[in-house]
Amino acid sequence: MLFIKDSKAGTQRGITGLETAIILIAFVVVASVFAFTVLSTGIFASERSKETVFAGLEEAKSSIEPRGSVIAYKANRGGTDTIYKVSWVVSNAVAGEPVDLTPPYSEGGSGTDPDIVSNAEYKTVISFTDINQHLPDVPWTVSWIGNDNADNLLEEGEKAEITVWLLTRATGTAITDGASTGYWTADSNGSYGILSTGTLIGTNDQFTLEMKPDSGAVLTIQRTAPSRLDTIMDLK
User: Fold this and answer.
1) Bridge partners of 30?
2) pTM for this entry
3) Domain boundary assignment for the chain
4) Residue 182 CB: number of other CB atoms within 10 A?
5) Helix (H) or strand (E) segment spanning residue 189
6) What is the rounded CA–CA span in Å between residue 139 and residue 169?
7) Taking Cα atoms as reference points, which of 195, 86, 217, 90 lies closest to residue 135?
8) N or C: which end of the chain has fewer CB within 10 A?
9) Which of 95-99, 107-111, 150-154 has the lowest mean pLDDT?
């Protein structure tokens, strides 16, 4: 037994060894619970961090990037020169997950282009924005350059040319023919280009195209039309 002398009362007080052991055991238990809690929290935080890193890697592996120039094409609409389509080449940013480039439209050799692909289950959406309008889902087509395994997945080593159509165009007509372009109307896909109530792209106009795949980062292309619109323009 441990005795403590009380000098004022002249008495002695104390605690037994059993009580001391109980106190020590209580301290050990509390310390163990606290240590377990801290360890569990650390493991949980580590797992969450690992999941975040892996999710970020998956997003990066699914990203796309442009390859080369952004090309714009001129047509005349009712006496006004404008840009009716824009195209660029994309590939995987890093070797990784394929990107679904199933197109909502196709390009044919007769009539007007582009041609709607009925009930197209496309996952990549492209939007157009300038100071006058925002088109959340514009028509686009795809053509494969070089290596192509005949599917609509952009995989490692493949390159695809994406063409955004802001106006329809009659195939085989003179590029300066004002009747060769038309205003787009919404269709069964829900996509549409510049409407008759919209504003055509003119000289020195800035516009933004956002290519939004099913997964991965959004590819943003911002360009300014030159001070003079030529038949074919490299928008640097």
Assistant:
1) none
2) 0.74
3) 11-60, 64-234
4) 15
5) none
6) 13
7) 195
8) C
9) 95-99
